[in-house]
UniProtKB/TrEMBL annotation, chain A:
Domain of life: Bacteria
Organism: Agathobacter ruminis
Protein name stated in the entry: Uncharacterized protein
Keywords attached to this entry: Membrane, Transmembrane, Transmembrane helix
Keyword Membrane in record: yes
Transmembrane spans: 12-32, 38-55, 88-110, 130-152, 159-185, 211-233, 270-293
From TrEMBL, chain B:
Keywords: ATP-binding, Nucleotide-binding, Transport
Domain ABC transporter: 1-208
Pfam short name (any one): ABC_tran
Database matches in InterPro entries: AAA+_ATPase (IPR003593), ABC_transporter-like_ATP-bd (IPR003439), ABC_Transporter_VariousFunc (IPR051782), P-loop_NTPase (IPR027417)
Protein name in the entry: ABC transporter domain-containing protein
Entry's Gene Ontology molecular function annotations: ATP binding; ATP hydrolysis activity
Natural source organism: Agathobacter ruminis
Superkingdom of this protein's organism: Bacteria
Length: 511, 208
């Protein structure tokens, strides 16, 4: 790039050229965002507009280095190609860094996220997510590099033909990759796929061999796109042998009057074509905005409104705003008839990433009836909730006969519980004594931030209800929080001590 | 052998056409291209430099077409447009040093001597020179490439009589030591009568 810029300049930089570069870059940005997804946006727009305008202007002015240096067209083209590639990647990276830092500094970062959190929000936290983004980044850069001939083609018809064919080629490539990815996407998730990145984020490839196969596919694509486009550019740029003209009679010098008449015809043609193009572009833009911004599922506009306070998704409480809710066994269809509130995050889950929205989103719904207290979550989890203060007052558990103490971390024996099944049967005597001692518990979301262990106490009418086909939340009794080897009943204000603690230890049987 | 040969060249750009342009320039000749503004002189030079490609016809340099031996043809030919088509943000001396890295045969000392002869400050940015100074700098630069064929579009446009003489004197000085073929376009009748062996007059998109 340095060689090219040190020697060549003298751009034919008219405002029309700048406008052309801006329009083309805008189309490229739209294409990347629509079909490829990710890595488009403002950085790609600015980087391409600047890079294209800079080199194209020099080319349009006919300022070839080979006019004053003893190099052939192939070598000159290599200089231009590297200038183009380095220029785009450099400007893109600069713009991307500026964008990320601007975001972190406060522009769009209203939640005050740290650098790591901000990046995780953009590009996910798992290897699968990052793999998809890397794949798409390689694809996008290859796509931009494949547009290189547009910089050097001077003939309008050839330029338009190349642009069209290139877009068709890439649309087919994207379609093939999406079809290949579709084999690993759940049928229900297919409707969420609107671009290549979505397909890659949704596909559940578990075998390394298949990942390698995918990487080979992108490798082949890069080779075809980059070397193919470079070869086309070389073919266009190199000097051609002379030829005998077929119709020399058409090359007649026009008189001033004939030129004026031809200009008039041309003016009318340009107005007609411009009006037609404007209508087509306006219609296409309207369709694009309608499909991708207005009609597109409202989930894109959701924000996180609630969070699970514990790791027990089936029985543990959640916080919606400052109110604590608990799961209940109730059939609701709020996901169909209610109002969507926003995302419900699992403990520490990042809801800002595209991966979350596509793959693991849980949306919280409430009823349109204001007197209806229920909340429902739908997505990868499906539970119904009632406000904790309501449940505490109702004391549904009093009619129950079976009480189970559910360990949040039920997959193995823990420090505080010997039961590997994840639950311990709890005598009603313990429940009664806990309620007698502590009564109505005032649950605070802050108490759930740094506990060491957590248990939910649920009541059931019988064993069948507790272990029926689906997971049953049972009737909420209360919960045990463990912090620094001290046990609390629902709140750090309610420490369990003495005889009650011994009884609890005997139930848990842990160390 | 001819240094440059146009054979039945046809070219169209917008409403302008070049029709059946044929001529040849022998090695060692100095030929002037004359004609009214807009008659196609600059287009002719663009065709020579392969800036634009003819719709039909053949252009040969020392008996070969550009595609046959491009690097060698480019090496032996210097094409000087009305305005520099290289980076004007560089200082003349800086530009020449960069250039020598790519073309080692470039005569850096000769370039400095020629700039000195023209009284040009080599530390100045190229774009900061006046139009006449830029033309002189370009000539100094292109002659320092040791070309066999020198093509110049309006080399004396905007120059006063003294500067014009300096320009052609420098070309003559070069010619005394090297075999050089020169083709230049001009509006100046004095340039034609004083320096050209032959005239190609352009009119109505052709050579008359």
């Amino acid at each position: 790039m340095k060689k090219f810029l040190r020697l060549s300049w003298g751009a034919d930089s008219t405002p029309l050229n700048l406008l052309g570069a801006v329009v083309l870059s805008f189309f490229i940005m739209l294409y990347i965002n629509t079909f490829i997804g990710g890595f488009g946006g403002i950085p790609a727009f600015i980087a391409y507009a600047f890079c294209f305008f800079l080199i194209r202007s020099v080319q349009k002015a006919g300022n070839r280095i080979s006019h004053f240096v003893a190099i052939d067209s192939a070598r000159e083209l290599r200089y231009i190609y590297f200038s183009y590639a380095e220029g785009y990647i450099l400007f893109y990276l600069i713009m991307k860094i500026v964008q990320v830092f601007a975001g972190i500094a406060g522009w769009g970062n209203i939640e005050g996220k740290s650098f790591g959190e901000y990046l995780n929000g953009l590009y996910g936290t798992t290897i699968m997510e990052r793999w998809a983004y890397i794949f798409v980044l390689i694809f996008t850069i290859s796509f931009v590099l494949s547009l290189f001939p547009l910089v050097i083609i001077r003939k309008t018809s050839t330029w338009l033909t190349y642009a069209f064919c290139n877009l068709v080629f890439h649309t087919i490539a994207v379609a093939i990759l999406v079809i290949a990815a579709a084999q690993y996407i759940r049928r229900a998730d297919m409707k969420k796929v609107s671009c290549l990145l979505d397909a890659l984020l949704l596909c559940q490839i578990k075998s390394t061999g298949k990942v390698v196969l995918y990487l080979i596919l992108i490798g082949i694509y890069v080779i075809v796109a980059v070397f193919g486009s470079y070869s086309i550019a070389r073919c266009i740029y190199r000097p051609k042998p002379g030829r005998v003209i077929a119709h020399p009679e058409k090359y007649v010098t026009m008189t001033e009057t004939e030129i004026e008449q031809a200009r008039e015809r041309s003016r009318k043609k340009i107005i007609g074509i411009s009006a037609g193009t404007f209508l087509v572009v306006a219609a296409a833009a309207f369709l694009f905005v309608y499909i991708f911004f207005i009609q597109k599922d409202e989930e894109d506009r959701f924000k996180q409104v609630g969070e699970c306070l514990t790791g027990d998704l089936c029985r543990g409480p959640i916080a919606y705003g400052s109110t604590v809710y608990v799961p209940v066994d109730a059939d609701c269809d709020l996901a169909e008839s209610g109002v969507a509130l926003g995302y419900l995050a699992k403990q520490g889950e990042n809801t800002a990433s595209r991966y979350y929205r596509l793959v693991s989103a849980n949306v919280l719904y409430k009823s349109i009836n204001k007197n209806h207290l229920y909340l429902q979550v739908a997505g990868t989890e499906n539970h119904t909730y009632l406000p904790m203060n309501y449940i505490e007052k109702q004391e549904f558990w009093r009619k129950d006969e079976l009480f189970l103490l559910w360990d949040e971390d039920w997959k193995g024996e823990s420090l505080y519980s010997k039961e590997v099944t994840g639950y311990s049967v709890c005598p009603k005597k313990l429940i009664t004594k806990l309620e007698e001692q502590f009564g109505y518990v005032n649950y605070a979301t802050d108490d759930f931030k740094d506990y060491d262990a957590y248990f939910t106490i649920s009541g059931y009418s019988d064993i069948q209800q507790a272990f029926m086909d689906d997971v049953s939340a049972g009737d909420w009794v209360g919960c045990i929080l463990v912090k620094d080897d001290r046990f609390y009943y629902g709140s750090y204000e309610n420490e369990i001590t003495g005889e009650l603690l011994e009884l609890l230890h005997s139930v848990l049987g842990g160390a | 052998m001819n240094a440059l040969e146009f054979e039945h060249i046809y070219f169209r750009r917008g409403y302008f056409t070049l029709s059946d342009v044929s001529f040849c320039i022998k090695i060692g000749e100095t030929v002037a291209v004359s004609g009214r503004s807009g008659c196609g002189k600059t287009t002719l030079f663009e065709l020579m430099g392969n800036v634009v490609k003819p719709d039909g016809g053949f252009i040969r340099y020392f008996g070969k077409e550009m595609y046959e031996d491009e690097a060698n043809i480019r090496r032996n030919m210097s094409l000087m447009f009305e305005e520099p088509n290289f980076n004007g943000e560089r200082r003349a001396e800086q530009f020449a040093r960069e250039f020598k890295k790519i073309e080692p045969s470039f005569d850096l000392e000769g370039f400095r001597a020629r700039l000195d002869c023209f009284g040009l400050d080599e530390k100045k940015r190229i774009r900061m020179y006046s139009k006449g100074m830029r033309k002189k700098m370009m000539l100094a630069f292109f002659l320092s490439r040791n070309p066999r064929l020198l093509l110049m579009d309006e080399p004396t446009g905007g120059l006063d009589t003294r500067s014009r003489t300096e320009v052609f004197d420098m070309i003559e000085a070069y010619r005394r030591e090297h075999e050089l073929t020169v083709l230049f376009s001009t509006h100046q009748k004095d340039d034609i009568s004083d320096y050209a062996n032959r005239i190609l007059h352009m009119e109505n998109g052709g050579i008359q």
